[in-house]
Design brief:
The chain is α/β, with parallel strands linked by helices and 268 residues long. It has two domains: 4-80 and 188-267, Rossmann fold; 85-184, 2-Layer Sandwich (Hypothetical Protein, Haloacid Dehalogenase-like Hydrolase, Chain: A, domain 2). It contains nine helices and 14 strands. It has helices at residues 24-34, 47-54, 85-95, 118-127, 156-167, 190-201, 218-221, 235-241, 252-267, and strands at 4-7, 38-42, 62-65, 70-73, 76-80, 101-107, 110-113, 132-134, 147-152, 172-177, 180-184, 208-212, 226-230, 242-245. The chain is globular and about 60 Å long. The N and C termini lie close together (9 Å).
Amino acid sequence: MIRLITSDIDGTLVPEGGNYVNPEYMVVIRKLLDLGVQFGAASGRHVSGIDAIFHELSDRIYYLGDNGACIQKNKETEKEILLDREDLLLLLEELKDIPGQHLLLSTRDGYYTDDKNETFWHLIFDEYQCGGRVVEHIENYADSCIKLSLYCENGAREIYDQIYEQWKDRFAINVSGARWVDINDFESTKGKAVRWLQEKYAITPEETVVFGDNYNDISMMEQAGRSYASELSHPDIKSAAGRVAASYEKDGVLEVLKQILEEVRSER
């Protein structure tokens, strides 16, 4: 029987940066929770950005924020993994010389940027509805950083290719969206966050279902006996998942959740 479901958000449930989901999602998820199924919203977003979508279920589901670097339930942080401060400061120094990208540093409390681009501010704090603020120097927050994100104007792959080889041994570096590159500690992956939930509730991979659409979702798919990629995903992601769900435009994840709800009911 299915006992754990985790889903990515951007590109899977909503268009990148979107915050509206069909209200029926909350109805179906609540019914699954009532039947004893755990649910985790797993995202590269800060937990405050996840809460913008799932607030009405915040006391019952897990937020796996910043690619699993911060796990919260009911506003209580249950796990947090920091980046190495010295390596981070070296990386920040190098990144400031690379044009075409905007830096966003994440902590448990919110996002911080010292970028002067107001369009970027609007994207993070208004569209994504994440907490945080603009500061003079993000280096001052290196001690509490759980993720560094790069918003890449000309697409994520260009910047990713510039930094990956040099930094791949010190950080987990992933393309997490069309214009996003995420940099985490190696212990901060969605897959390890899913495994943490599995261990907490003695749930097996065979009892786990996940949904995703991008490269930072593959580790999560590897932890599940059943995983679905959005039909809009790259072929690599579909191959990793093994199953395909209709896009967010068609509420594809919702349709699968309804099927799982009937499965769980019939097995009880």
